[in-house]
Amino acid sequence: MSTDTGSHAGDRTVDLDIDRVIGPETFRLLALCCVLVMTASYVSVLREVTRVVGGTHSLFALVAVMLATATILSWAIRPRTATVGAIVACIFGFAYYLEISGVGAGVMLSASDAILSDTLSLIAGLPLIRMVEAGVWTLAYAPAPVFLSWYLAMRGRYSLSVVPGGLALGFLVLTGDAGTTITLVGTLAGIGAVGFGELERRDGSVAQADLIAVLFAIIIVLSLSVTFVPGDSGPTSSVSGSSPGTLEGAIDSAADRSAIGGSVELSPEVRFTVQSEQESYWRTGVYDRFTGDEWIRTGEPQNYDGAIDSPPGEYDRVRQLVTAETDLGVMPMAPQPLALEGDLSQHAEVTRHGQVHPTTPILEGDSYAVESAVVDPEPNELRTAGTDYPDPLIENFDYLQTPEGTSNEFEERTAEITADADNPYDTAVAIESHLRSSKGYSLDVDRPDGNVAEEFLFEMDEGYCVYFATTMVQMLRAEDVPARYVTGYTGGQQVDDDEYVVRGTDAHAWVEVYFPDHGWVSFEPTPGDSRDSVHADHVEQAREDGIDNVDTEDSEDEPLPEADREDENEDGSESDGQSDGSDDGTDSERDDDPNENDDSESNGNDSQRESENGSTDTVGEQHAGEGSEDDGWRSYLALPTVSRETATIGLIALVGLVASVHRTGATSRVRREIGLYWQRSGDDPDRDVERAYRRLERVLAREYRPRERSESPRQYLDALASDPERTIDPRVKTVTNRYERAIYGGGVTRADADDAIEIVDALARERLPVIGRRQTERDPEP
């Protein structure tokens, strides 16, 4: 007994030593660190936005100023005054950004409508990265929660300090900008601030850390078990049968984004037909904000109300009738659309860039009529267009945006390429010619890390339309020329004087440049190479393989345009439409514009792959039926993959479960329950008998009542047996007698101890009343 007491005293000494090391001051430091981590979580989301649109240095400066101010004022002003100060900080945030950006605080009032509109759109679920005034709004958003959170934390009001930070992070979760990892980190930090703050306030010890772990797990699991983040309500801009692995599936994979991927395939299946008096590129998407690895369409679309803004200068009106040959999530049409006719006009919306999108999927067989304004000025007119761009074009759109951190080398190289250009048109032609002549065309590329435009200009030798168009837009913007990235399809196969069949092989991306008094003019930086011949080979091979939907009734008997050109190649003439780079900005270069040049997304590299494989795979059929039996077994035996986020959540839940079990004493109860039915013999017989008797008391307490502290063991048994209808099981008295000898007498032998253990084991396992039968034999140990 004395040894056991000493052991417990030693444990308490260790606990006291730990408490002296991890005391209130330590818990305060941990709580403050948690508040800083929570602040960093939502600031990191804002930093991702400023990385794209600019203002990261201003963001960090604002956060630092707010933290310093809150520290200084934490004990100088009251919380109510601090709340008012946070609002003032928000206002100063707007003014600070506008001043350092060179715009001036006076613009803040004129920009208030746009900022308010953006904020309301955010509440409705618009991602922050798609906001028109993303930079201004982001820098105005940060100061208030940063200041108020840190002020309250410095005053020891930890529970209140997580409220402004939690609201700031929660709002970014609702907009879809804060991912699961950031949300987890911020939430854990908030809970940690509250938990450690409570430990500081209550002079808690490290032994209460299990309570913090339980709170962490419960709140995290509950917060992530319900999906409440609104998604994009717009339709998915995809084509039936396409996938992210195809070019068209990549460039129009979402309603507001255009991806930049790696290797892609082409599908020869017919997507739509067009009846038009003039051939054109058929545009499906316009994007203005470049993140470095994808394109974003800013702003919210408006329902089509019967009219779309027309270009500022002269243009020709062209009417088209588009018929879907498969389900579509886009509305191809010649730029720039002016009006939409047909039943689908009731289910269409117009982006702020003037492109029409369907609000519901277009089904196979649906058709719609479009009237477009075709802008086709002479090169000399574009050279003299000047740079007097409309203010809304520059102030409210991202047509001059480049990601923050764009290298000086990129800008210097662009300046070298355009050194001889003295106007935006010649600048565009110089960049277009350089890309067409210096880069090869291939669909088989590895997607680079970092800024795609820089990587393509400096590191890559070949790519496809997405890379050429992206790089040209960014180079133009580096020269302060408004430009944007557009997606859609090339003209397709002409099957009649005014009818075109457009396939998946015609998916494309190109560039539009703005010229005052003219509007948006298309440029084609992607080299033609052997596109026509490869396009024909691709479709012809699909026809031979019997692939469905490769032709319409009008196109199946029509020779493909490349057939004659292949004959010419046999005579030694060239079919390559790529510029040789020798042009110097003359009118001939504009002859390569998208309305006249039928570049598609294929070339000799694809032809080579086809000849090696012997056939052309299509989406949904690629590698069908291929693979060995071993591949099948590997697929069958493959273990399911678990994402890092899922594993993190699972780990948190497991830690919380273990902590809750420890906190509630469940482990001790389980151990005691198991110990009720089984006892291991020790080295001390007296100690073993004592433990056996304690188990016996628990058996009796379960059947009748616990022993009172004032009762001796013998008095306890006499009280239980006071009912004349009951007598005491002799085995109970045997264990009690041996307990008395072990505690108060001369001790017991090893055999007596083992016998007492076996008796209690039997009584517990029988789970029968140990009292209730009259004893007819004499107690073996009176």
Automatic annotation (TrEMBL):
**A Pfam short name:** Transglut_core
Q: Which PANTHER family match?
A: PROTEIN-GLUTAMINE GAMMA-GLUTAMYLTRANSFERASE
State the UniProt keywords alphabetically.
Membrane, Transmembrane, Transmembrane helix
- Name the UniProt record assigns to this protein: DUF4129 domain-containing protein
Q: Which residues cross the membrane?
A: 27-46, 58-77, 83-100, 135-153, 158-175, 181-199, 211-229
Annotated region (Disordered) at: 542-633
Question: Could you tell me which InterPro entries the record lists for this protein?
Answer: Bact_TGase-like, Papain-like_cys_pep_sf, TgpA-like_C, TgpA_N, Transglutaminase-like
Report domain Transglutaminase-like positions: 457-527
Domain of life from the UniProt record? Archaea
Q: Where are stretches of biased composition, namely Acidic residues?
A: 547-574, 581-601
